[in-house]
Amino acid sequence: MSREYEIAFRLGAQLQSTFSQSFTQANNSIAELEKRMQKLEQTSSHSSSKKGGGLGGAFGGIGLAAVGATAAIGTAALVAGGAAFSMAENYQVAMAHLQQSTGASAEQMGEFKDVATSMYNMNLGESWDDLSDAISKTSSITKLHGKELQETTTKALYMRDVFGQDIPETLKASDTMMRNFGISSDQAFNLLASGAQKGLDKSGELLDSANEYAPQFKALGFSADEMFDTFSSGLDAGAFNLDKVGDAVKEFNIRAKDGSKTSAQAFQALGLNAEKMTQTFAKGGPEAKKSFTEVLNLISNVEDPVKRNAIGVSLLGTQFEDLEVKVISAMGNTQKQFDSTKDTMGEIAKVKYTSLGGAIRGIGRQFETSLVIPLSDKLLPVMQNISNSMFDVMPAIKSSLGQVGSFIGAATSEIAADAAWIWENGFDKEMEGVTINYAKALGLNDSQAEVIASSIANVFHKLGDLRDKFLTLWSEVLPYIQPIFSSVGSIMAQLIPIMGEIMSTMVTMASKIYSALIPVATYLLGKFMPIFANIASFIATMVVPSIAQAIHAIMPHILSLTDKLTSAFTTVWNIIRPIIDALVAVFNYAFPTIKSTVVNAIQAISGAIGGIFDMLGGVIDFVTGVFTGDWGKAWLGVREIFGGIFSTLGSLLAFPINNIIDAINRVIQGMNNIKFDLPEWLGGGSFDLNIPELSKIGGYADGGVVNSPELAWVGEGGDSEVIVPINNSERSRSLWQTAGSMLGMTPSTQGSQGEGSNISVTYAPVNNFYGNVDRAQVEAAQSDNNDDLQKRLHALQRQQRRVAFG
């Protein structure tokens, strides 16, 4: 047996890394099995004449079934194993391609494999090869790693799968937008996806335009959202492709800051300072964007088409002629449509990758990445070693398999012949002798062989008894079943003619109905079709030409009326427009006054009403106190009456005074807006005013801090108030303690900052000198600083002595 074991171990050790050859061998084995089954079938036809050479009867059927089942199981196992190994092979090939295309090290490949596996489990990519290619391109273009690489590759796949966008072009566009506008990868892809959804890619130029013109929009102070808003406005206004819109912005950006005579004349024609405009656009930022919008609107408002075209071409080149004024005007008046913070890609992912098929595919991918691929990673080194040593022993294996095959073939023929005997003759005495011979050939003694043969014979006898019992039962049941079959047959015999008669009757009815309707239809068509033909001819030859002639005659009158209406409208509008401008100017000037007056009136009315209610409450308390003899309550009512009177008077008096203060403050605001540059002969610089505004009269029922003189009334809130000057005097501290006592609080410390308190002063003067400075000038500046410090200290001491006593 040692030789057989050696052959088996050699065979097991020489399996190749892939099972492609194994599948070929399996197919060949199945074909050979079919041939042997056919030979067995041929042998069984004459096996009944052989004595002692067959297994006979039902046992042959069992043997054939067992052979077929074994073949089926082996084939299924080979298919399952082949599928698993095919998965592993696809993964290994894809990862090898990824490493080759990126030049990644072993450590980097670990990161790439993690990214690929995570995305594969998310049902992304069509295959391992597809994911490998996408990750390779993303890494090469963006230089990203880890989680950022995975997220960016995922979004690029979304753009490809949903909108058909090329992955490298998508990555280049998003990378350019990120670098120019300082936005994140999520924001860039959200804008690209939203743009595709809203039709910006109708000419197939969305990615190219975003990639090419992002620097131009950035130079003019636009954000990424505003670039897409401009693209959309241009297309909606009639631009025939996205590239023209972006090229117009690019051409303007170049010409607006080139300082050429043509650009300067164009700015001047619009009433703008050419030098200032050139500097503004060269600087970029928000002012450049604001000026860009202003220039486009001014161009759109030029009424003379020849002059407008000359200015437009000077600042936007031939793109102005291609786009025309309607598109240019729209680009200068864009509407907010795009928001890079809206999770457009996330919404796409929810819809795109949620389905029953996706869920089932996800389960398969989880199984693949969790079991098949880890197992293949472990087996790959072993398989490679096996493959390397396969060539050494292959000749010996082929020779051994040939000998084993011949032996198995002869044995199979003998067994097949015996099985055929059993199938025909059963397990008789002759078959018992054959079985004893087989048992002895396997090494058993006479008694053991006889026991086995007797046991097999007993089994077949019992199967025969079972067969006889079944036949007896069938013969007993058959009389009861036969009447049912007879009844069913009788029913069918009666139903079939009836069904035929019904079908024949229906066909006859249809034929009669058809025969009856045909004359009617023919008559009606003969009568009415000429009428319909005359009507159609009348409409075609007279009605339609008459209508066309009438419309043709009316059109000039309509056009003439339209011209007159347009002229009249323009005339009326030129008259009404200055009036509207004047009314708007008056309203804008008067509205602040109206607002302050209304607010002051509301406050005055509210205070007056509150005072009146306080007075009424006081009268009620006074009357109640007098009639009940509660003189304390009566006195409280008197106080409430006078408090309500003063509160009402205060609110009413404050109203006109606050209106006057508002008017003065508006004058102050106007004066504070006066700003102008001083000429060099006056020292240069700028002149402006910063006059503080006056405070309105109000109360301090809710408390507050006053830092400058103002008019106010106190006690208007109905609560007791304590007014404490912040001057560190004894009286102020006493009032402070009184307030704390009234609030139920006791000050924890009492301090005095009188004359004897310590004062900490940090003095660090800074002198700035320009040009050549000598020692005398430095000493003079230091002397001035010392004098200033002494004056400040003396003033501080005087202030301390002044507030030391209440």
Characterise this structure.
The strands form 2 sheets. This protein has a two-stranded antiparallel sheet with strand order 1-2. Strands 3-4 form a two-stranded parallel sheet. The radius of gyration is 53 Å and the shape is extended. The chain starts with a helix and ends with a helix. Helices cover 77% and strands 1% of the residues. By secondary structure, the protein is mainly α. Among the domains are: 14-91 and 385-426, no CATH class; 201-336, no CATH class. Strand 1 (675-677) and strand 2 (686-688) form a beta hairpin. Helix 15 crosses helix 16. The longest helix has 183 residues, at 446-628. Residues 124-317 form the Phage tail tape measure protein domain. Keywords: Coiled coil, Membrane, Transmembrane, Transmembrane helix, Viral release from host cell. Residues 23-50 form a coiled coil. This is Phage tail tape measure protein domain-containing protein. It comes from Paenibacillus anseongense.
Blueprint (SSEs and pairs):
Layout: H1 2-13, H2 20-44, H3 58-102, H4 106-121, H5 128-142, H6 146-163, H7 167-181, H8 185-197, H9 206-219, H10 224-236, H11 242-255, H12 261-269, H13 274-283, H14 286-301, H15 305-316, H16 318-331, H17 344-352, H18 356-425, H19 429-441, H20 446-628, H21 631-672, E1 675-677, E2 686-688, E3 698-699, E4 712-713, H22 730-742, H23 775-802
Parallel strand pairs: 3-4
Antiparallel strand pairs: 1-2
Pfam families: PhageMin_Tail
Domain Phage tail tape measure protein: 124-317
Coiled coil: 23-50
